[in-house]
Fold this sequence. Notes:
Blueprint: H1 7-27, H2 34-56, H3 61-80, H4 99-120, H5 128-148, E1 153-155, E2 160-162, H6 198-214, E3 229-231, E4 239-244, H7 245-249, E5 261-267, E6 270-279, H8 288-294, E7 301-302, E8 306-311, E9 314-320, E10 340-344, E11 363-364
Amino acid sequence: MAAGRNGYLLFGGVASVGAGALHLFAAGLHTEHATLARLIIVLAGAQCAAGLLASVSTRKAVPVIVIGVNLVAVAIWGYTRFAGLPWPDGLGTAEAPQFLDSTCAALGLLAIAGAAVALVRPGATLPTAPTATAAGLAGVLAVAAMLGGAGHVHSHDGGEHTHAAGGDHSDHETGTAWPRPWDPAAAIDVSGVPGVTAAQEQRATALIRSTLDRLPAFADVNSIGALGFRSIGDASTGYEHFINFGYIRDDRFLDPTYPESLVYRVEGTDRTLVSAMYIAKGKKIDDTELLDYAGPLMQWHVHDNLCWKTGADGPQVAGVTDAQGNCPPNSINPGAGNPMVHVWIAAHQCGPFAALEGHGAGQAAATGRRTDTCSHDHSGGHR
């Protein structure tokens, strides 16, 4: 060991480099969230640089740098085990601790501990052999975490996204057919559909991803009333819609942090959040912005046959018009307006933008085959 070098700081530096190496590895597992991956790389670089600095410098500021960088990393890890972050995409929901991220956090804590001792005891040394052994164990632990992280899984609250080693998603069904069965636990794949541009694919993928990440904030149906959501009284269909008229009136468009409507699967008294229903107030069903957003991947629809009545908490669905276009007594049909589209965070045989089927499912623009429905022999979310 070099003369005058604090052994505890050296140990903390090794742990910091190990944590940084794990973060570099983890960045490759989050490539579907570009901003998150870049931030992980920046953090990894800072941890590695702080660790290397601890091995070559005896300046008093070095332990502080090691502590500061790793404290940020450990604090973010700890917070995201219990709650989500509004930014960046990919950290919208809490994740359960796993071997890879827990090992990374443990190495960060060891780095903090070593640097803290160095601050208190700047002249302390450690025997060469134990220090080398500890450094070797830290390296072995980091490699083991990388190997275990090859099957890393991060959740989207209600679905898990698994990254196979090398990014192999070959088990996911591909092809040109649309709609395709949708499983949020698999990779997002809207590729290869005729008539869909690269920009439309990117927008569709980004919308699905952001909805998966952020919509679970509304999973507790008992909490959404305080945000202004009101049921339209359609639980008997098996799916219950909650509308937020304040969000409908604002200027936000396809924003999963302000969804105009939420759809819950009804199972007795239980409600499971399965979909957002975005509403484009004031636009027509053939609006160019809507049609061009994701092309035939995402089909907007309107409801021109629903009848509404006044309820204690707001408008309630009373039924649909009969063959003559009449509504049940004490209800009215306001006609078509405010196009809408679903984005599912639960598995659905008819794709991520599937409509709720049935007589009240809505009407789409006359643009050819409707691509938000599929054959009726599936049971994964129709009505």
